User: Which sequence fits this backbone?
């Protein structure tokens, strides 16, 4: 939650941010009394929660984090970014640029075998991708979303050499390999459920609810967490993996545990989250070099509590680049770019059926972890060359993009143009992302005022193709107060370069300081 003064914007004014370091049911609310005083309440949601303390026992509540600024919402976000990225996230991946990956889900869904996966990975390697991720469908009887969840054993018909054999082949291509799990869920058509039907959350005597044909395992019970941990370790011990995508594709309903007495049932939801944290902690201690990405049906469980265990989260299952402008813009209010999973998906997009140019899909995804959710074998030769250039650009600039100081410049919620930028700590480099949703004829001339540059330095301005965009090197104060000119052929500019001016257009501007600070 952010409270701001009426005239506070991105660059000036007071604002107060509150975040709860917790992944369960929570409430953050503002109350205004008759004296116009505002009180903030933040904590575990009181509805459906109760905790019975025996004599001598203790209960630890979640921590709340607060940040204040009088310099606008960008400064508030930068405070959260530094806190979450450097003090909450931990482990060997906290400060490391993220690997560029190719996930097979939107390319194949459940229709794959070992050979088709290696073919996809091989083309990705040719383009410069570093990590291949096998998503849902590799285990048990999982040929659709009605069966197999809970049986974390590779399907021998699809993967005759198991995950270990596939990972060996992927490694042989010169790539890392990652794997998808949804450890908190189970299908009723699974060996795990048939052996332990009482291991799901359900209310006795009532018809149970499911989402996507899956039910929630009762992680408030240690024996359930132990069983899932053992199955996951069996896979991870045998295979050479460097990344885990941990999904959680539904909200929790029927929150009743077979293991708790009636007077403690309202402890179930909180005990469940403690079980999730316990499984995460055990896994990251056992596999400290694996990069964990939390993925809760997109952003359904994207919170500081998860960030403590997984330093990045899949931002949304809505992978359309135009939708992602709003999604990633909003996520940036609290979370650093290094934590925002963002990929290039196929067109027409599988969620909204929109056709967005390849360059714009990449220009959105690069302000995040960057990856590809498609089969690169399906692209034309000229598109593959674009992908290679996108990956070269990302490798050259990902530390700046993921760990630089981030500024929001123009909101997708307020107009046709979205803009944001990152600046290096020493103010010698910056990258600006500019995105126009719809094209119109005879557009007015336009500028975007930049932020965070050194006022007494000159900067060269180049496009993502590394061609000079303007003939002179503007000074930092000029770019911040007068703005970067973004006018193009739609506003009567005479352009000598071949450029797309249709709907869903975008550009990246690279700034490099050419003079030392005065």
Assistant:
């Amino acid at each position: 939650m952010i409270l701001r003064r009426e005239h506070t914007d991105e660059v000036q004014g007071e604002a107060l941010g509150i975040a709860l370091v917790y992944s369960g049911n929570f409430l953050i609310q503002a109350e205004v009394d008759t004296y116009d005083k505002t009180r903030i309440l933040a904590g575990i949601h009181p509805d459906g929660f109760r905790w019975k303390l025996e004599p001598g026992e203790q209960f630890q509540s979640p921590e709340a984090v607060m940040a204040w600024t009088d310099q606008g919402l960008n400064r508030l976000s930068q405070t959260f970014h530094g806190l979450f990225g450097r003090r909450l996230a931990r482990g060997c991946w906290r400060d490391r640029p993220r690997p560029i990956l190719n996930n097979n889900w939107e390319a194949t869904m459940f229709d794959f075998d070992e050979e088709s996966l290696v073919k996809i990975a091989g083309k990705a390697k040719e383009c410069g991708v570093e990590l291949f991720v096998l998503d849902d469908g590799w285990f048990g009887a999982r040929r659709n979303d009605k069966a197999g969840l809970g049986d974390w054993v590779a399907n021998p018909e699809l993967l005759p050499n198991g995950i270990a054999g596939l990972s060996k082949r992927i490694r042989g291509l010169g790539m890392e390999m990652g794997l998808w799990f949804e450890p908190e869920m189970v299908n009723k058509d699974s060996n795990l459920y048939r052996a332990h039907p009482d291991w799901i959350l359900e209310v006795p005597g009532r018809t149970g609810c499911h989402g996507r044909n899956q039910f929630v395992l009762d992680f408030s019970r240690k024996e359930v967490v132990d069983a899932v941990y053992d199955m996951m370790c069996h896979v991870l011990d045998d295979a050479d993996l460097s990344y885990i995508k941990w999904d959680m594709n539904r909200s929790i309903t029927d929150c009743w545990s077979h293991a708790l007495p009636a007077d403690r049932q309202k402890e179930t939801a909180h005990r469940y989250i403690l079980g999730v944290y316990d499984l995460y902690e055990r896994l990251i201690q056992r596999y400290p070099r694996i990069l964990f990405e939390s993925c809760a049906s997109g952003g359904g469980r994207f919170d500081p509590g998860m960030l403590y265990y997984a330093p990045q989260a899949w931002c949304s299952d809505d992978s359309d680049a135009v939708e992602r402008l709003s999604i990633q813009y909003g996520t940036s209010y609290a979370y650093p770019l290094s934590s925002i999973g963002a990929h290039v998906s196929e067109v027409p997009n599988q969620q909204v059926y929109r056709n967005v140019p390849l360059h714009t899909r990449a220009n959105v995804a690069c302000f995040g972890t960057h990856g590809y959710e498609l089969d690169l074998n399906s692209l034309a030769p000229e598109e593959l060359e674009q992908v290679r250039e996108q990956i070269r650009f990302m490798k050259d600039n990902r530390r700046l993009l993921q760990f630089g100081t981030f500024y929001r410049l123009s909101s997708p919620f307020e107009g046709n143009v979205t803009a944001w930028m990152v600046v290096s700590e020493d103010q010698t480099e910056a990258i600006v992302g500019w995105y126009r949703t719809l094209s119109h004829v005879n557009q007015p001339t336009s500028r975007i005022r930049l932020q965070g540059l050194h006022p007494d330095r000159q900067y060269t301005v180049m496009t993502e193709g590394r061609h000079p965009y303007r003939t002179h090197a503007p000074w930092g104060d000029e770019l911040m107060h007068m703005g970067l000119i973004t006018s193009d052929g739609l506003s009567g500019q005479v352009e000598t370069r071949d450029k797309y001016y249709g709907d869903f257009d975008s550009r990246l501007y690279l700034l490099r300081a050419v003079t030392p600070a005065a």
About this structure: DSSP finds twelve helices and 23 strands in the chain. The CA atoms of residues 417 and 436 lie 5 Å apart. The two ends are 40 Å apart (CA to CA). The longest helix spans residues 381-403.
